[in-house]
Amino acid sequence: MNKGEGQAAAWNADTQLDGNSLLYLEEMYERYLQEPASIPASWQHYFDALPQVNGQERDTRHSLVKDYFRAYAAKPQAYAAPAANSGVDLEHERKQVKVLQLINAYRFQGHFHAQTNPLEENAPAFVKELTLAYHSLSEADLGTTFNTGSLFSRDQMTLRDIITQLEQTYCAHIGVQYMHTTNTEQKRWIQQRLETVRSTATYSNEQKLEILDRLIAAEGLERYLHTNYVGQKRFSLEGGESLIPMLNGLIQHAGALGTQEMVIGMAHRGRLNVLVNVLGKAPGLLFGEFEGKYSYSGRTGDVKYHMGYASDMMTPGGPLHVAMAFNPSHLEIVGPVVEGAVRARQDRWPEGGDDKIVPVVLHGDAAFAGQGVNMEMLQMADTRGYRTAGTVHIVINNQVGFTTSAAADARSTFYCTDIAKMVDSPVFHVNGDDPEAVLLVTQVAMDYRATFKKDVVIDLVCYRRHGHNEADEPSATQPVMYRKIRAMPTTRERYAQQLIAAGVISAEEAQARVQRCRQQLTEGAPTVPHLLEKGQVENPHPVNWKRFVGGKWDMPTDTTIDAATVRNLGEKLTIYPEGFKLNSRVARIVADRKKMAAGEQLMDWGFCENLAYASLIEEGYPVRLSGEDCGRGTFFHRHAVFHEQETGETYVPLQHLSPAQKPFVVIDSLLSEEAVLGFEYGYATTEANTLTIWEAQFGDFANCAQVVIDQFISSGEQKWGLLCGLVMLLPHGFEGQGPEHSSARLERYLQLCAQDNMQVCVPSTPAQAFHMLRRQMVRDYRTPLIVMTPKSLLRHPLAVNSMEDITERGFQNVIDEIDAIDPLKVTRLVMCSGKVYYDLLEQRRKAGLEHVAIVRVEQLYPFPEADMNAMLDRYPNVAVNVWCQEEPLNQGAWLSIQPSLRTVLGGTARLDVSSRPASASPAVGSAKVHAAQQQELVDNALGITMS
């Protein structure tokens, strides 16, 4: 393509360019000079066709010229004034710019050249941008003195010394990616920390011996378990032993910075080692678990490598509480749970919580790149409702995922950590066989988090000495890798030899330390330095969970409030600043709420829900409500947040009830279910006295968070003894809107129910929702609450309540017939839940059926057997009992509730079901077919003969 063709192609690609496009063109040209392939081919051809500088090379990037002059402005004394018309000086100045370009290249791409992989320690690397020739320099220039620009060094050095410093800083055992970040201050901070010490740690002999002891402990535990518990899974840390001095160093350094609590989340690999050699769990307790000595008092318990733990450590800054979260085998899902637990802890502090509580999340390399929850979790990092002021992420990079090759199949990115670049996080790659380098980047990463309150990632590049588990044979799928691993000394052996060679320790003393470690393991006592005894440290913000232990779901609970409180709080819910212009529809809703508060109008769903929150806040219970669009409410009912129509500013009445009120937080979340629900679970398991609610935009959207529901919400108490009062609001109801916006999959939650692990409710009136939400907090009982919330009932003319329903009656597990029907005349009893009740009621009234009673089961689990028996006693002449549901026969409540219904009805009682036919899909896509099905199941339930 000639010059004219290139210009034409570029012009055709951007026909909208005009005189205002200068910045766009400048940016395009800069990108071309840095990396031609990063711009469209048409522009590449255009710039390729431009005249060459000196007829043989590309132009110099303008940003580098700017860097040169900035450096001159900062250090003018370092620049000699060029002689007039001196060709030599002009050539030197041209090369000076090229040297600055080379420095920049190392900062951008030095990590590609870094020796961070223990399995390829001496492998040659070639990065053309790091060669002299690429920058029009040669070996003849190595002895020439140049200004060092923004490099943290002497003002002037020879090119040879400049390259030596750059190689040591960016291409040794630490490789850092940070130039992609957009904040100049953060980039200069990292440059200052690494370039001033050339990425080389300086530790005392005492510190080096402590590192050695931690490596000995890490290796010693694995070998002890391998010898004494042959064939048992433990998901060994061998190959990544540097994680132990890394985490110990992180705890000590965080404590020195003022951290008082640290929450750690990790999957199973290396977990047992971390429990013993970081958190101080007594080896004897672990060995007892291997030997099956412990029971779980009626709970199922869990495998050893899923268990959590907590301990207190003494640090240079004082005691630090360290908690490791429980987690299942679903790899990365514990990350957002940890973030939620940390946010709950931070919220307890009146101020300074960001600095006091630090989250640390450990990842596997294949999982960090492959699991979508990580993208969701990272995307939460700086959002209003989920921010935790920076997480230290540590990737235990084994360079293989079970049997999947990292390079070929595990990801499409160069690094497993590239996802972190999405949120501007710097990434420190470090060789796991160099524990001193590991400790250095750990300290830098913790300081970065403390300084900038941002996420930071450490890529601990190591390997897996055994297979996925100890019974696995890794060489079957990675023969070359494991041939190399079998020939390698361990990290402990390497480091011991390094210290012996440096005269820090003798070979005999190094071996004696190994023997002492073995003896300590045999004794089974904790071996972690700095460990404090349980109860020695007082928590400044304690939470009393003991009062909920042994609580019963049906304990007597008064959830009513008096009429004066209704009027007072209801009025406050309608107040907003003077001159604050509301949307016209919202203004009408607020006006109606004024009447409801005064008792002049029946109460609707939105009013009762907000009233429940207000009453709890005034009684000392904070409320946290999050989910997609929950400020307004997906179905335009909540309006907890008012929006000024001219300025866009917001006002939240629930935050202005009284000066001493507890907080009300409502968050329109990022478009995530899995990570956000995991976050709220973590929050709810940490904070007992806050009503923590997650609302799905549509109930079926919770499908995207099924792992949180299955592995945490429904089973966390049974597996780990963790109590949790999380509420899930799931809009549910067949409105003719098709398969994806009908069902919250009620059947799935009921299938997960056993041992009183959850509550599943389907409130059919606003007052029921009011009492249900209050009941969740005011009784001494904490179990997850799953709620099938309505859509059309939010504005249904019959789904309203009077003042007395709030002030005189609490939550009713079962609601009996409301019409004046003689119980002795009832021969047909229809039982149901949710919206279908109103269809049944209207059709029964229309048909004038006085022998049919309709009963609502508002709590499906735990099944309210006593309430049902009391209700059934009123109808001695029933011949036919019917369970009616909108859902298909194989879905909804029928299959789960049927045994409980038969128990209360008695073995000989007739029990029929009226529902949609069994279906692979939740609902039909045709509104007309939907209406016909609904009419049929209602008539069938009522015993109306079809004509």
From TrEMBL:
Record-annotated Transketolase-like pyrimidine-binding domain positions: 603-796
EC assignment: 1.2.4.2
Highest taxon listed in the record's lineage: Bacteria
Keywords: Oxidoreductase, Thiamine pyrophosphate
InterPro entries the UniProt entry points to: 2-oxogl_dehyd_N, 2oxoglutarate_DH_E1, DH_E1, KGD_C_sf, ODO-1/KGD_C, THDP-binding, Transketolase-like_Pyr-bd
Enzyme class: oxidoreductase
Cofactor needs: thiamine diphosphate
GO molecular function, one term: oxoglutarate dehydrogenase (succinyl-transferring) activity
CDD domains per record: TPP_E1_OGDC_like
Family listed: Belongs to the alpha-ketoglutarate dehydrogenase family.
Task performed by this protein: E1 component of the 2-oxoglutarate dehydrogenase (OGDH) complex which catalyzes the decarboxylation of 2-oxoglutarate, the first step in the conversion of 2-oxoglutarate to succinyl-CoA and CO(2).
Protein name: oxoglutarate dehydrogenase (succinyl-transferring)
Species of provenance: Thiothrix winogradskyi
Taxonomic classification: Bacteria, Pseudomonadati, Pseudomonadota, Gammaproteobacteria, Thiotrichales
